[in-house]
Design goal:
Order of helices and strands: EEHEEHE
Number of strands: 5
Shape: globular
Radius of gyration: 11 Å
Distance between the termini: 14 Å
Strand order of the largest sheet: 2-1-5-4-3
Structural class: alpha+beta
Strand content: 25-35%
Amino acid sequence: MATLLKSDGSESEYTDITLSGMQKAVGGYIELVRLPKGKMLVVNEDGLNLKLPYNPRASQLSQRHLVGDILLMNQNEID
């Protein structure tokens, strides 16, 4: 099961981890950001160009500037 990290700081469980479900969650085409310990973030690959709002929680986890609503999940859920 994934966690949806919203750019407004809220979090919720997210169960539709199909390609179309992940695209819906992040609002567009997806890009994977790998994290330690088998975790990953699913982000909108065009989020910066779309000027999506900054996501502080996801940015903290990845040590990168990330924007928009983002899914946090285990890599083995889609690999």
